[in-house]
Fold this sequence. Notes:
The chain has 582 residues and is an alpha+beta fold. It has three domains: 2-227, no CATH class; 337-366 and 374-473, Thrombin, subunit H, CATH 2.40.10; 476-581, Thrombin, subunit H (Beta Barrel), CATH 2.40.10. The chain contains 18 helices and 16 strands. A six-stranded antiparallel beta barrel has the order 5-6-7-10-9-8. Strand 6 and strand 7 (420-425) form a beta hairpin. The longest helix is centred in the N-terminal third of the chain and has 34 residues, at 97-130.
Amino acid sequence: MVVKLDKLFDENIVLDLKILTYIPNIKKDLDIWTASLAELELGEAAKQIFITLLELRRLDCHDFVRFQIIQQIEPNLSHLLLSLEQHYLSNSLLDTKRDQQISELVLEIKSNHALLYIELFKRTQATLETYKFSFFDFNLKKKLNVFRKQTAILAINHLTNLLYSLQLLYLDVPKNFWTSAYYIYQIACFYQFNLDKVEKIAEQSIDIDSTEKAFAQLILLSLLNSHKLRQSEIKELMQCIAYWTSLIHFSENQGHQSHYYLDIQSDIGPKLNLQNDIQHQNFYYINTMELASYIESTLHPNAHYYSKVEEKSLTQVLKRHIVTTLNLNPSRIRPRYEEQGTLEVTLGITSAHFFLSHAKHFKETLDLDIDLSLQSNNQVLSQISSDKEIQLSSRTHEQRFNAEITRIYHADIINRSENGYGLQWHSQVIKNLRNGEFILIKEHQDKVWTGALIRWMKHSQQQSLEFGIEIITKSMCSLAVSIPKQNTALPIYHPAILYKNDDLDYAIILPSAQVFYENQNLLLRLGQNEFKIFLKHSSILTQSCAIFSFDLLERSKQPMMDRYFEHQISTLQTQDLWESLK
Length: 582
C-alpha cells in the first residue's frame, strides 16, 4: 500500500482537464451534486468523491475556484471517511481482504486530499514569487497572501490526518511526505507568516489557527507514537495533541532541552538528538520541556488540564508513555545488529503462566480444594477489564486447555540489540499480537523461556509485520494473585509472573493496569502458600500488563518465598516441556 502512496506523492500534476465528471457546470451543478451524495449508497458515494478529488487536482481552473469546490465537498468527505474507517478500525491488523481494500481506499483519498492543498500552496507561492504586481494589484496580492496561509494550514492538517490513519494501521509514511511538510514550514518561516493567525475555516480545528500550530501538531503525532501505541491510545493521543501545540518550540539553535530535531533537508520525521554538542545548519531543534512538565503534572491527583477532552482521554498508561518519550535519554539507545534465526513465541500472561507452570492450566496451579469455576459475581466481573487475560482468570476456568494459551508461534529474527530483538511475522497475524503484550521467547528448544515485552509494531513493504521486543527477564516463575476484601464469596485469582530485576529485587508482572495500581495490597499465591504484599512503583505500564516493585508485608515468610522461587527456576531449567505435554 505504501508503494502506491509513494507514486501519488511523487506525481507531477498537469492542469489539463477541462470538465469534472460529476460537476460538468460548476455554478449550476455543484450544489445539486453535493446534495445528492447523502442519498447514494456508501460505495457509490465513495466512488464519486474519489473520482472528483482526482479530477479536481488536474482541473484547468483558477485555484480560488478549486478551493471553493473542495471546501464545499469537505462535509461529505469527512462523513464518508468516518463511515469507511468504521469498517476496519476495530481490527488494526486487517485480517480480511475487504478490510484491506477499504483501508487502501481511505489512505488514497486522504493522500489526494492532502496533495490537493499542497499543490494549491505551491502554485500560490510560485505566483507570489514570480508575478510582478502593479500598484493596482494590491488587493490581489493581499488575497493571495491570505490564501497561502490558509492552504499552508490545511495542507499540514491533512498530512496530520493521513499520518494518523497510517499509524492506526501500523504503516510508515510514503516517500516525500516529510519533504512536503518541511517545504511548507520553511516557506512560512522564511516569509515570516508561520505565527500569523488565520480566521477559522469551516473544517479547520479551532485550536489550529496558524502554520506553526499545524506543524507542531504533525510533529507531536509523529514524535509521540513511533509504532509503540495501540489503536485506542493513538485515538486518545490524536484527540489531545491540538491542545499542546504551544508547549513545544522549534529553533535553529540547539538548547539544553533539545531532545529531538528535524533534518529539514531530508525526508525523515523527528529524530532523537544524539549529538548535543554539535550544531547542524539544516536542523530545527525541538524543545519539549514545557510539554513534558505539563504531562508530568497531570500524573498527580487533582491535576489541572487544558481541556475536558484531555482529562477524559489521557490514561495513566498514555501519560507515562508520553513522559518517557519526551524525556528519553539518548544513552539508553542501544545499537542493533543484523542477525538471522527463528524464535518460538507465546503471547500473553496467561499463556506465559501455562508454559512456566509445566503446561498446567491456571486453575490446576492454584492447588485449591474448591472449584473456582462455580463462582460468579457480576459486580466484580463488571469492574474487571474486558481483556482476554482477565476473562480467562475469572470466567472460563472450565476450559482446560485453551487453544490460544497453549499455542507456540514462530517469528523470524531480523536484528538484535543488547536488550531485545527485531522480529518479523510472515504468517497470518492474530489479534493477540499487540503493542505492550507480555510474551515468552525461546531461541532453541533446549533453552529456557525468556520474558519480553512487545514495544513497537509496523507493517513492512514485504507484506509482513515487523515488531520490536524488549527483554525483561530470564529468571521468573508463575504464580497467582488476588485482591483481598473483595465483595465475593470466594477470591478471584489472576495469573501473574514473579521475577528478579537487575538489582536482584523481586518484581511482579500483572495482567492489567486497570485492575492493579500503585499502593495496593495484594495476596500472592505460591503453591499452597499465600503472601501479603504491597505494590509500590510501576516501572512498566501498558494496556495488557503492569510491572511493579513490591514489599513483602510478612518478612518472616521471605525465606519461604526465596525457596519457592529458586525451586521453580531450577525445575524450569530441567523440565522438558514436550514431555509434560504428552
